[in-house]
Structures are given as C-alpha cells and as structure tokens.
Amino acid sequence: MRCLSMPMLVALAQGGRDVVPHEYHVTEILDPPQKVYLKRHKPYWIAPQTMVWAIYGTAIHNIMESGHDEAVRLGVNDRFNCEQSFEVQLDGTVLKGRYDLYDKIDKTLWDYKSIKQYMVERLMAGDFTETKYPAQLNIYRAFGCPEAEHIKIEAIVKDWSQQAKMDPVVDIDIPIWPDEFVKEYVKSLLKIHEDAEATGVYRECLPDELWFPKSPRSKNFGIPVRCRDYCEVSSVCEQYKEWRKNNAR
Fold first, then answer.
1. Over 188-245, what HEC string results?
2. Which single residue of 66, 138, 162, 224 has CA 20 to 30 Å from 147?
3. 120 burial level (CB within 10 Å; 0-12, 13-18, 19+)
4. Do 96 and 190 share a domain, yes or no?
C-alpha cells in the first residue's frame, strides 16, 4: 500500500503545540490525565491514515474564518468577534483557549463542529452525557467571553444524506453553567494534570473514556474504539497494551 501524498502528510502533521510547563489549553484539560501526560512526556508515533479524521474540523474552521474575514472586508460583519484567543492564570497555572465566534448583538457564543447525525440527534434532545461540548464551551464563555448570554453549536452533520431527518447544518443550544462552578471545575482539572506532572503518577482512562460501543450488535462491541482509532498515544499506552494482550484473537 502506498504512502499518502506529501501535501496530505504535511497537512496531517500541522497543528501540534509545544509543551510549556504549567500551561494547558482548554481542550487539553478535558482529556484523560493519562493521555495528556503521555503526549507531554513520551515519544510516540502515529499512523498518518488514522489522523485523517482530525483535519475535518480544522478544514471547517479555516473555511468559516475565511468567510468571516471576507465579510469584514465587505463591511457587513462588524457585529462579530471571530477566532478570539484568551489566556488566564489560575493558582500559578496558565489556561489558554480560543473561541470561534461571538455575536455582539445577540450576545451569543458560537462554536463550529462537525458531528455525526446520531450524536446531533442526541444533542438536540438535550442529551450531553457522552460529550465534553458543554464543559468546553462554558469554559470558553466564563474565561474568554463572559458577556455572552447564550451558547450555541453550529453543527455540520458529517454523514448527512438526502434521507436524513434534519438539515445538513443544525443549531444546538448549550446550557450555561454558573461562572463560579466553571472556575472551580477548571481549577480541579488543572490540579489533576499538575499533580501528574509533579509526581509522574496519573490515573488510567476510565471505561467511559475509552468509547466502548454500547450496543452488542456493533461490530466493535467490547473494543475500546478511542484507543484503537482516535488516541494519538495508544502506541505507548500500557493500559491499551494490556487490553490487547488480554483480548488477543
């Protein structure tokens, strides 16, 4: 089997961040402590084909950002702040983030996401149990855009078809959490990651963090799909190595 084209390989290799002690990004602190620690401290390899999924979201954000820039050039987009970064210090640790769009008239914080149809249906029904979206976006609001009174996801349905019972782009309301709760929640997450940094001891991923399919009819039933298909450090993870050893077929 041939390797990917050079432009594809370069595209997949972009987007990494330098590790800075006592500095974390919002999406990073929401990841399992084991994954964060291994990414920061262990050299690891990634099969390029398994990273293709990651460029979908990046492509969507690039397209939306270019659309915003063009609207500004045309003088019709003064009401929006787009791709705004923020940085705060909490108990000696730096938290960084970047939100997608803020509507200054509607006071709405927007986030662009590419999401599969089954998950869009759950989110529209108010079921957020299997996603970190509410946590991520409430952190963005509390620390980066506290004037926002509403939070919404503009979801692009990645597996949409003509048979889908929804539009290809769907707006999803995200409940707002109290600011004080968000701040204490973030401090607790930062402490978990900082303790792991200081001691080298981190907790293993919990079952719900491994993305085991719930339906026995799934062809992946009993398999930690996140480890197999989506985790960058699964090649250096002892927990996944042990699972593979115990479930060799």
1. HHHHHHHHHHHHCCCCCCCHHHCCCCCCCCCCCCCCCHHHHHHCCCHHHCHHHHHHHH
2. 66
3. buried
4. yes
